[in-house]
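Contributing new records

If you add data, match the layout below exactly. Sequence lines come first and carry their own label; structure lines follow with theirs. Keep one chain per record. Anything else will be rejected by the validation script.
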Amino acid sequence: MPVYAIYDIVNDPPRAVQWPFELCARRIAETWLATREVAATLDDLRLATPFLRGCGITVESLPGREVRVSSDRGQTTVMSREAVIMTALRCLATLDAQRSTRGATRAA
């Protein structure tokens, strides 16, 4: 069932896209919801890598479908491409939530 909402684009314009990953995140999420599986291509990983770097996470491809992920705090783990894409989606959701909170605070 659709939900109708009015968005005030004049007083609260949408934020500009900062990372190419933000554009493919919707496609990834829609595919995930439709198929109940997260699919991660090499192109998705290439788009997520600089975005994650901006979040303090370094990504290094390993042979096969595994990826080494390191945080700025020195924690390192090996995970699948799909897990890295999910990490990027979580980081994006966190950034959007922080921006929304700041916008709500500014409006108050």
